[in-house]
Amino acid sequence: MNAPVKTPLTMATPVAPSSTPRRALPGAEAFTNLIKAVIPPLLGIALFIGVWALIATRSEGLPGPLSTWYSALELFADPFYDNGPNDMGIGWNILHSLGRVGLGFGLAALIGIPLGFAIGRFAFLANMLSPIISLLRPVSPLAWLPIGLLVFEAAGPASIWVIFISSIWPIILNTAAGVASVPQDYLNVARVLKLSEFKVLTRILFPAVLPHLMTGIRLAIGVAWLVIVAAEMLTGGTGLGFWVWDEWNNLNVEHILIAIIIVGLVGLALEQALLLLAKRFDYAN
């Protein structure tokens, strides 16, 4: 008889643990990103309010955050009342200021953008207008107010004139710089293809200049919103600037602080709106 064959015992080979890291759950990752986005601004706001409250406790005439908050609630309970030209709600004053800024800034964009393209495109025109721009650009915005009052003989158009003349320079200079930075090879190809000036403008220059143009517009709207408050303080009538000056005459410092916050919030909203507009027309996306 043949002896039975003994089979060797086989030992199980240990399996190495997987080295692939576990992926975080989508909800947990979104929550982490939300915390990272929200916590720093909240800490900054809390720090600002804390410093404000500390200064208010040491200053006899400066209201603190809490009393200013209660005053704001009372103020915005009826923001659109109208008891005459010199007694209007805060909502009407904001709208009047925004209307003047829209008109002045719109005129500046309407004239400044084509002029910037022309200056960047044609060296002769750039050399001709460069001394004038260099002379007028450093002039303080409020220095233009007496000229506006003299020419237009009314406070409203004079304020719009100040906004226009103050905000046109960033638009012109940034647009011209963008046109001048377009590579010459692009223009040479357009010349070889015998493209019309309109096609050169729309197909080559505008997409390349858009980032510079949006930067100029953002700077211009910031200048316009900055100038309108000071102009309205001097011209009177309606608007945030006049409202701030009127509240100062009434020694209502809480309302002045509220106006400062409103000016900052509206300026921030305008800038964010322009950023969204820039993304909407971003040719890279």
TrEMBL record:
Residues 94-278 form the ABC transmembrane type-1 domain. One of its GO terms (molecular function) is nitrate transmembrane transporter activity. It is found in: Cell inner membrane; Cell membrane. Its main location: membrane. GO terms for cellular component: plasma membrane. It comes from the Bacteria. InterPro entries: MetI-like (IPR000515), MetI-like_sf (IPR035906), NtrB (IPR005889). The chain crosses the membrane at residues 34-55, 101-124, 144-164, 219-244, 256-278. This is Nitrate ABC transporter permease. It comes from Aquipseudomonas guryensis.
